[in-house]
Amino acid sequence: MFANVMSNDKLKKMIKEIFFEIFPNLVEDDFAWGKKQNEYENWDSFAQLNLITFAEAKFNITFSLDESIEIKSANDLLKSIQSHLT
């Protein structure tokens, strides 16, 4: 199973890659796991949709509408993905 072969570090790396793809102006120093949606300059509904879609495709999972709405930080995305992979 996917979760058994993926370390937490690898999972975090993949999530960071998603964030840097969705937010091309994001620099390493500005990324933080707890940084909230309203602290990102361009995290609007379109960016939210892209984050969810990219994560679902990358990890072969499907988020519920409620889960999608509740994701407000990289850490929230990490926790949601982990819950699907375990």
TrEMBL record:
InterPro entries: ACP-like_sf
Protein name stated in the entry: Acyl carrier protein
Organism (species): Nitrosopumilus zosterae
